[in-house]
Amino acid sequence: RALSKVDPDAFVIRAVDGVEALEIIDADNIPRPYFIMLDVNMPRMNGHEFLQKLRMNKRDSGSMVFMFTTSDSARDIAKAYSERVNGYIVKPHGKAGMHSILDTIRGYWNICEPPMNAA
């Protein structure tokens, strides 16, 4: 929701948990490459479990993934980077901080060449 305020033209699909996110990705109805913002703390399948499954699927293993979460646990951070996240961001307090971070991430996405488009 906050990303839509930062970039109203962004094509955003929201999943309530990792299970639903994998179902959406597996349905193959949305264009790649995927830019995924993921929380560590989700029901049914946490963010680490989601990443393990995503990275096992060769087709989607190069998706750009940012952990965007309230967890500042050193263990969660280390585990996320071992699962090849592109960034680990602890959610800030307040809308201004959130919008600033999302704007920065959007800018990053706009200037990067996604792995799936590389020759």
UniProtKB/TrEMBL annotation:
Example of a GO biological process term: phosphorelay signal transduction system
Residue ranges constituting the Response regulatory domain according to the UniProt record: 1-106
Entry superkingdom: Bacteria
Coiled coil start-end: none
PROSITE patterns, per the entry: RESPONSE_REGULATORY (PS50110)
Xref: Gene3D superfamilies: 3.40.50.2300
Native organism: Tritonibacter scottomollicae
Name by which UniProt lists this protein: Response regulator receiver domain-containing protein
Keyword Hydrolase: no
Annotated InterPro entries: CheY-like_superfamily (IPR011006), Sig_transdc_resp-reg_receiver (IPR001789), TCS_response_regulator (IPR052893)
Modified residues (4-aspartylphosphate): D39
Cell membrane in keyword set: no
Record keywords, A-Z: Phosphoprotein
